[in-house]
Design a protein that fits this description.
Layout (H helix, E strand, L loop, with lengths): L11 H31 L5 H8 L6 H39 L2 H15 L3 H14 L6 H26 L3 H9 L4 H31 L11 H12 L2 H35 L24
Helix pairs in contact: 2-3, 3-6, 3-8, 3-9, 4-6, 5-6, 6-8, 7-8, 8-10, 9-10
């Protein structure tokens, strides 16, 4: 076995200590979990009355609860799709502007990116909700949430795109210039398609973040899932169960998005490693291309 670069391979004594430490830590965690479950059981958190609205089909409010939660989750999805689309579009435009801008005004583009990168997303949402109406821009609450999410995430995506382009070999830009392409044409036709393949996992991970951040819509009273659950808690008085169910739903959705990123990355990797098909250089009829010789001379 080759030694790691940053540390030596552990010896038998170190591996034994690591194993003992892992077992002790696992036993402690299981003990804490058991203690928590016992305390929850003593407080009646596992009773049918608490979980009935979520799992009992015959509970009077079962249908109303899941119907309302489904509508609220749909509102999350709508806000996420709009914010994703705008963030990708504006972020790509910002990245291209920063790459192609002249030095004398590049500072302005960089300042905008750094400003919104350092701004908490919840502040961006609340700012859009409170400031835009003050200047006469009245919008549905959905759009205040979308504007806040876009303001924060578009600059993150801009940096992802810029890093993806910067990771390409310098010869890609030189090849575009050699065949007469302008800087913008080279970026659009040669570099960006390759960069998107490189940065696709990071982009999809950021899209997962956007979907999670739609839950911050409750601070502006947007009717998304967290706000609906908070209203349902006031009537059903089972906050632990409702927030647990909502957490599971978000985890499943985000896990599926993460698996999508892995699937797309593998597909693109396979597509990029496929060599020329047998018979390349001939037409589908089997005839040689024009201008090629069929003789040994």
């Amino acid at each position: 076995m080759s030694n790691p670069v940053l540390y030596d391979n552990p010896g038998p004594r170190t591996r034994r200590r690591v194993m003992i430490g892992s077992v002790v830590a696992g036993v402690l965690l299981l003990g804490v979990l058991a203690l928590v479950l016992v305390r929850l059981g003593e407080e009646g958190q596992f009773s049918g009355e608490r979980w009935g609205p979520l799992v009992n089909l015959y509970y009077p409010k079962f249908a109303a609860l899941w119907t309302g939660l489904g509508v609220a989750l749909w509102n999350n999805i709508v806000a996420a799709v709009l914010a994703m689309t705008l963030s990708l579009t504006i972020g790509t435009a910002l990245a291209l502007t920063r790459i192609t801008s002249a030095r004398w005004y590049r500072w302005a583009v960089v300042s905008v990116i750094e400003l919104f990168r350092g701004l908490p997303v919840v502040i961006a949402i609340f700012f859009a909700y409170r400031v835009l109406p003050e200047v006469g821009i009245e919008l549905p609450k959905l759009w205040y949430l979308v504007i806040g999410l876009t303001a924060y995430n578009c600059v993150i995506i801009a940096e992802i795109v810029r890093s993806g382009v910067a990771s390409l070999p310098r010869g890609q830009a030189e090849a575009g210039a050699a065949i007469g392409l302008t800087r913008g044409q080279s970026l659009r036709l040669v570099q960006l398609p390759q960069a998107f393949r490189v940065m696709l996992p990071a982009l999809i991970s950021q899209l997962v973040v956007i979907f999670k951040d739609t839950s911050l819509g409750f601070i502006i009273l947007y009717p998304e899932s967290v706000r609906f659950v908070r209203l349902a808690i006031e009537e059903l008085d089972n906050p632990l169960q409702l927030f647990f169910a909502l957490a599971v739903i978000f985890i499943v959705i985000n896990y599926l998005l993460s698996r999508l990123a892995v699937y797309v990355e593998r597909r693109l990797s396979r597509a990029g490693t496929v060599g020329p098909r047998p018979g390349a250089g001939t037409l589908d009829t089997g005839q040689p291309l024009a201008g090629t010789s069929t003789t040994g001379g």
